[in-house]
Amino acid sequence: MNVIFLGPPGAGKGTQAQQVCKELNIPQISTGDILRRAIKEQTPTGIEAKRYIDQGQLVPDEVVIAIVKERLAMDDCKNGYILDGFPRTVPQAEALAQFADIDAVVELDVPDDHLVQRLSGRRVCLNCGATYHVSRKQDNVCDNCSHELIQRDDDKPETVLSRLEVYHKQTAPLVEFYQNRNVLKKIDGSQSVDAIFAQILESLRG
Ligand code: AP5
Questions:
Q1: Phi and psi (nearest 5°) for 84?
Q2: Which residues pair with 105 in a beta bridge?
Q3: Treating both helix axes as pointing N-terminal to C-terminal, what angle do 112-120 and 157-166 enclose, rounded to 10 degrees?
Q4: What is the pLDDT of residues 117-138, one digit of tens each?
Q5: Which of 80, 122, 183, 185 is most buried, most CB within 10 Å of its CB?
Q6: φ/ψ (deg, to 5) at 79
Q7: How confident is the model at residue 75 (pLDDT cuts 50, 70, 90)?
Q8: Sheet with strand 2-6: strands edge to edge
Q9: Is any ligand 1 atom within 6 A of the Cβ of residue 81?
Q10: Among 135, 14, 144, 37, which Cα is nearest to 83's?
Q11: Which residue, 67, 60, 148, is CA-closest to 50?
Q12: What is the value of pTM for the model shown?
């Protein structure tokens, strides 16, 4: 099953994608994680992407489209995948349609004020991509791989606000794009992590 997780920054795409991928035994393809890895390794793509990410802006379409096209051609994607954070613009969605068949798009709907609170308390593992919230984590160590957790630079309040603005302008039109293709499944993302997980599985299996 080929699935897209769509939603604003902090909606819980990464949190849910991680659990659903484990349950369905398919890979999670997060363009944010791929770009952050490229930044850490200081590759030419990473150096270019950093300029945009630090300002809460989107990385140019052609850069992320090339990354995803290459990633989806890998063997582990043959039985399905979850795209977490891609596409994010109509041109990205149109490009994706040229090289992938999408079965479902899960939209996580969360009000903006919840998002700011979630992102300011988020801690991430740069090694495996796991995500936590300070209110539900006793220590500063990843449960999966024991690496230290950090706060992302783009989770600073002023950058969070520009990311939300970018989402409403550039990514929200994808809701209608996928509604028109009859693949959109809207989930209330302000519920508990477990309740959302159960609803996503039900919507994908139903
Ligand atoms: P990316 O890493 O994709 O960031 P994002 O879409 O802004 O999403 P986030 O990772 O911030 O949030 P999330 O929805 O995954 O929420 P999470 O599960 O972590 O992209 C970063 C940057 O890369 C972009 O700004 C852009 O510059 C660039 N980029 C990436 N893809 C691109 C593309 N396709 N095109 C162009 N540029 C691209 O949860 C957030 C917090 O809330 C956590 O602390 C979590 O523990 C907590 N939480 C989760 N669920 C719940 C819940 N149900 N209740 C309470 N708390 C919860």
A1: -115, 105
A2: 4, 184
A3: 140
A4: 899 999 999 888 888 999 989 9
A5: 122
A6: -100, 15
A7: very high
A8: 28-30, 81-84, 2-6, 104-109, 184-188
A9: no
A10: 14
A11: 60
A12: 0.94
- Identity of the residue numbered 96: L
Predicted confidence at residue 151, as pLDDT, reads: 92
Q: Which of 3, 9, 38, 28 is nearest to 130 (CA)?
A: 28
Cβ(193) to ligand 1 under 6 A? yes
Displacement of CA 88 from its chain's centroid (Å)? 10
Structure token digits, residue 63: 């850069």
Q: Is the model's pLDDT at 111 over the cut of 80? A: yes
Ligand 1 centre distance from Cα of residue 76 (Å)? 23
Residue 167: Cβ within 10 Å count: 21
Q: Say how many CA atoms lie within 13 Å of 141 toward its Cβ.
A: 4
CA distance 153 to 20: 27
Q: What is the distance in A from the centroid of ligand 1 to the CA of 8?
A: 7
Residue 158, pLDDT > 90, answer: no
Please give the distance, rounded to the nearest whole angstrom, from the Cα atom of residue 62 to the centre of ligand 1: 21
pLDDT tens per residue, range 8-60: 999 999 999 999 999 999 999 999 999 999 999 999 999 999 999 999 999 99
Alpha-carbon span 205 to 145, nearest angstrom: 30
